[in-house]
Specification:
alpha+beta; 3 domains; 8 strands; Phage_tail_fibre_N; 264 residues; five-stranded antiparallel sheet
């Protein structure tokens, strides 16, 4: 396999510091990066970069998920910075020593005044025998998430949201089912109560005789009290109440038959 044109290596200072860190058990804090416009071939002998165009604190540090010996460094250049070409990058520790150096494909970083503005993100992968030797500590003011990290978090959040939605839908369906069953049971009980009430009413009303306009009574009926009426009889088929009889009482020289026909 042909060797890549673009790569990053540890400088002699970097190798010495990592060996010392391994022996002492103390980590190394990779703090900042510097960009250069000079075209270089990375060398272990290098102690600094020339023709610097930009420097800042490292934006993101993480151990690679697929290879625990890789440390990923993200170097971010904001959109309001530019007007220069980038060809090399250097990684520095807290003491300001150049620990790693690499070359990158020639990249021009424009600014808005030139008619275009864009952010630049350079990813450096450092291969170490023990990635735990690197202190993964960042300046909170410059922390930026990588696209892969954001995508992973996005997928994780989407899965959690989907799980919550499914749980909510299941609970909602359960409540709907219980409520529907309750309504069906309530309607059934209401119909039963209505039927029983109507049956009781019909049984009670059957004990009474109610007449309105011209109606006839068929069958034998038992009366607990004598029927009353304030209406005077006017034909042969009507009952005569006591008031009518008293009003038309027999006088001197009258007999039953004569008086009866006078009433009618």
């Amino acid at each position: 396999m042909a060797k890549s044109q673009y790569y990053t290596i540890l400088t002699k200072i970097g190798m010495a510091k990592f060996i010392a860190a391994r022996a002492s058990g103390n980590g190394i804090n990779l703090k900042s990066f510097k960009l250069s416009s000079k075209v270089i071939l990375p060398s272990e002998e290098m102690q600094s970069l020339e023709e610097l165009v930009y420097e800042a604190n490292i934006s993101s540090k993480s151990v690679d998920e697929s290879n625990p010996n890789y440390v990923n460094l993200m170097c971010h250049v904001p959109s309001d910075v530019g007007g220069f070409e980038v060809n090399a990058v250097g990684i520095y520790d807290e003491a300001g020593d150049l620990l790693a150096v690499g070359n990158v494909p020639r990249t021009y970083k424009p600014i808005l005044q030139e008619g275009s503005a864009k952010e630049l993100m350079i990813k450096i992968v450092m291969e170490l025998s023990n990635a735990s030797e690197v202190i993964l500590k960042l300046d909170p003011s410059v922390i930026m998430a990588s696209r892969d990290y954001v995508d992973a978090i996005k997928i994780e959040l989407e899965l959690k949201i989907e799980a919550l939605i499914q749980k909510y839908d299941a609970e909602l369906q359960r409540v709907r089912t219980e409520f529907s069953n309750y309504l069906l049971e309530s309607n059934f009980n209401r119909e039963i109560a209505k039927y029983l009430l109507q049956s009781d009413f019909n049984r009670e009303i059957a004990k009474y005789v109610t007449l309105s306009t011209n109606q006839t009574i068929t069958g034998a009926k038992n009366f607990t009290q004598l029927p009353t009426s304030s209406i005077k009889a006017t034909n042969d088929n009507q009952f005569v109440n006591l008031a009518t009889l008293k009003e038309q009482a027999l006088g001197v020289g009258q007999n039953y038959k004569n008086k009866f026909y006078q009433i009618m």
